[in-house]
Amino acid sequence: MPKVLIVEDDKFLRELINRKLQSENFETVLAVDGESGLDLIQKEMPDIALLDLILPGINGFEVLAKAKEIDKVKEIPVIVLSNLGQKDDIDKGINLGAADYLVKAHFTPSEIIEKINEVLSKTK
What we know:
alpha/beta, Rossmann fold, 5 helices, 19% strand
């Protein structure tokens, strides 16, 4: 059962994605801010992480940059899931090592699951 770390400060969205993932037989770990996201990616060693960018404390870009500097977790794929849809933001996320970048408004929970499966299939 693949383990997914969800780093999302919006309670409604976090719970929506969490329920959808669990219904599709994923194990989930939840973080509400950047610091706990960075902490949990190291403690839980998920198969993949969904990362919001606008977070309390350190933002998602910082979480991504720091995670990619840690040997034991740098290979864990990270999908950015954000409302920041500007090309500069997308490029920055990809350049920092994100496996993919999804703009929240453009994707349903089912499509997010498809993306997770697509990214995981490339890492096996």
